[in-house]
Amino acid sequence: MRKAIGAAGVLQLDSVNVLTRSHYLPVFARAGKYPRATLDELAWGAQRELFEYFWGHKAALIPLTAYPLMRWRMRAAERQVWDEELSPDLTAPWSVVQGMRRLTAERPGYVDQVLRMITENGPLTAGEASPDGVRRKRTDPDPDPGTGRMWNWQDAKIAIEYLFCAGKVTIAGRRHFERIYDLTERVLPADILNAPEPTADEARRELIRIAARGLGVGTLKELCGGSGQAHFPLPAATGRAVIGELVESGELIPVRVEGVKPQSYRWHEAEDGPINTQALLSPFDPLIWNRDRTHHLFDFFYRISIYTPAPQRIHGYYVLPFLLGDRLVARVDLKSDRKTSTLVVPTLTPEPDTEDPAGPLVTELRLMASWLGLENIQVTATSPLGRAVARAAADQAD
What is the reported pLDDT for 206? Predict the structure, then answer.
């Protein structure tokens, strides 16, 4: 599990639970069947080895050894320098940036009140950390809302997320996947908090090393671009300079990848050779989260469908690409029906010009069902591949 997490670099968190939480899936894809409770312990247990922070603008679990590498970003957030020209390396959720601009003007001292509540009463959820219990409504006048139109963040949530960005508080645990916050020094090990703090330049270099090890080969944009689909986004000029330093040191090797116009860079320890593997990949797996990279490396145009209205979905709701060897050969829509203890396959679409993946896919579906504690597999997909997988699953069951 540690090796799989280290190879991934980060595990993106997402609230959708139609199959299982997304952060469990990259470890399953790399390590096979493992106890999810063990990952929970690594992330939120007393002897934790992971911590939560932002991968770009997105929440993620990151190995605890990388915590010192984030301190320069935490300090930038603490200064509240939201102007990208003045603080281009700063990454924070839109609701934090907009919300703190409003809170600073409208409610000076409010953040300190929230911090005091956590100090005296923590660990707390965002709802429990409201000093006055006042809730803003969506109908309140708010021409530039800090609450966030989609998530309807309250002032306490904005304040506590700012404190999280600044490293003052961290995630002590999860309750029904809701974040529980506490003072960082009460949650993370003292040796990590007291570790020497690298300079911003040293941290940037190490973060790109982590990305390069995870990807094996990538362009500047894929290694550290600000598109939200790199491991740790950096401004273009900064990323270019750091990559230049790593090329000079021999850690990154400039290469050309067929079909890829921009310059690519290969991690000097990346292994070369045939790939013999199979895996169902989370929509948020580091191998495929950069949709452009997935397209030009695998000729696989992939977009997540969970926010797409049902009539417009083509391949299903929660679609996992199926990796077989070095190709993505099918799109597998999956759902856990926990009431009937069944792994359901509503939609199954093969990629053009691929060999029949039914046999390996059934093997992987059975492994996943067993891992999730589901007793049955039900293939309701009506495509030819769906019918073939249903027959193969029935034959294996017999």
Answer: 96
